Amino acid sequence: MRKVAESTVRRLSLYLRFLEEFAARGVATVSSGELASRGGTTSAQVRKDLSFFGSFGKRGMGYAVPEMVAQLREILGLARRWRVALLGAGKIGSALIEHRGFRERGFDIVAVFDQDPRKIGTAWNGLTVQDEAGLEAALRRAPVEIAILAVPSDAAQGLADRLTGLGIAAILNVAPVQLVVPPHVEVRTVSLAMELEGLSFALTNR
Amino acid sequence: MRKVAESTVRRLSLYLRFLEEFAARGVATVSSGELASRGGTTSAQVRKDLSFFGSFGKRGMGYAVPEMVAQLREILGLARRWRVALLGAGKIGSALIEHRGFRERGFDIVAVFDQDPRKIGTAWNGLTVQDEAGLEAALRRAPVEIAILAVPSDAAQGLADRLTGLGIAAILNVAPVQLVVPPHVEVRTVSLAMELEGLSFALTNR
Do A198 and B94 count as a contact with CB atoms less than 8 A apart? Predict the structure, then answer.
């Protein structure tokens, strides 16, 4: 498959959400125009985004909603479940683990780690917080495909190295730091503080 | 000023964080190479990013750390404080309001709103949860510059319209939905569930 831009993948996620809503309301077909208006983009962009993945719908007929939901779920890797480890049992981690949306989309947080002795061993939404020192042993025993790094900035790179060493190829990083990882490892960095700075930049420089 | 890409602004935020660490350790100058290696980019990119904003440092001399911290804070709009309203007193909102990092960077959450009668009137980190129905009156009485939308997807657009109507031009949206706003309004959408889908896409399509 051709290289697909992150922005395209993000729009596919948005389209899928709208299509699922349509499906729940029993709508059989949608036009690219309807998808576009909900996705904040143009019909041409919708058609281009979908063209990466073969043919969807017929010209003038719109897209068949249930079929497209199934295809997009397949494309996005959501037709299966993913095992996720959470590193960092702090406030953000806590909000994440209770986030209903993750499980609904197929992401199961199956292990949580921290280095704080006051947290290790405590119960967390049906899980027990494990000692970060035992990360390798624990994840060899019960492997995961995805790790969420919700730790302080200065701890993030070291943990990313250890995760990469374990063969984990997908990291969601919520620390405001750019991780250096081998090319086969996919990292998404999301920092709300940095997004706020993007807004203050925009307000200041207009 | 020329139009600056979001990715550039994000790197400026990263550079600033590194420079602040250097400053705290008493380092007087850094090279573009050092900044680049910490920012996961190249020296050429660092120089290009900074060139948007006039001259920093002298060729071969490196960048003067404290001066550059001050300039980057000015550029990013962090040389002042911002008043922020939080809409949605749920789990994510709760993690946000207790997030030390926001206040440290100059973002003060000064008001919190929800529509759940069980939450309205309760205390929240020194604030009282206000009724979303009274949003306009409350924000006219005590204006804010930035709003964080931490509400369910189907409520996000309606609230964005009301915020825009109040003249708020900067919205951080954590609902997995693309908001439609007038061109002068800056929106950053951050959805951890969507980032996870980006990772499952990458794991599935490689």
Answer: no
Distance separating alpha carbons of residues A157 and A153, to the nearest angstrom: 8
- Within chain A, all domains assigned CATH 3.40.50.720 are found at 82-195
Q: pLDDT at residue A98 above 80?
A: no
pLDDT in tens, B58-116: 666 788 899 999 999 999 999 999 999 999 998 777 777 767 778 888 999 999 999 99
Alpha-carbon torsion (B181, B183, B184, B186), positive or negative: positive
| A82-195 topology per CATH | Rossmann fold (3.40.50)
* Residue A30 DSSP class: E
Alpha helices, DSSP H only, in chain A?
A: 6-24, 32-39, 43-51, 65-75, 91-97, 100-104, 135-141, 153-165, 192-204
**Residue range(s) occupied by CATH 1.10.10.10 in chain B:** 6-75
Q: Does B75 contact chain A (CB < 8 Å)?
A: yes
B180 part of contact set with chain A, CB < 8 Å = yes
Cβ of A172 and B192 within 8 Å?
yes
Q: How large is the ipTM?
A: 0.90
Per-residue pLDDT of chain B (206 residues; tens, 9 = 90+): 557 888 889 889 989 988 998 999 999 999 888 888 777 788 898 888 888 777 666 666 788 899 999 999 999 999 999 999 999 998 777 777 767 778 888 999 999 999 999 999 999 878 999 999 999 999 999 999 999 999 988 899 999 999 999 999 999 999 888 898 999 999 999 888 889 999 999 999 88
How close B29 comes to chain A (CA, Å)?
21
Helix (H) or strand (E) holding B16: helix B6-24
Q: Comparing C-alpha atoms, which of A93, A126, A89 is closest to residue A110? A: A126
Which pLDDT tens digit goes with each residue over A46-66? 888 888 777 666 666 788 899
B5 touches chain A (CB under 8 A): no
Residues 8-67 of chain B with CB under 8 A from chain A are 9-10, 12-14, 17, 37-41
| Interface contact flag, A201 B76, Cβ < 8 Å | yes
* pTM for the structure as a whole: 0.85
Domain B6-75: which topology? Arc Repressor Mutant, subunit A (1.10.10)
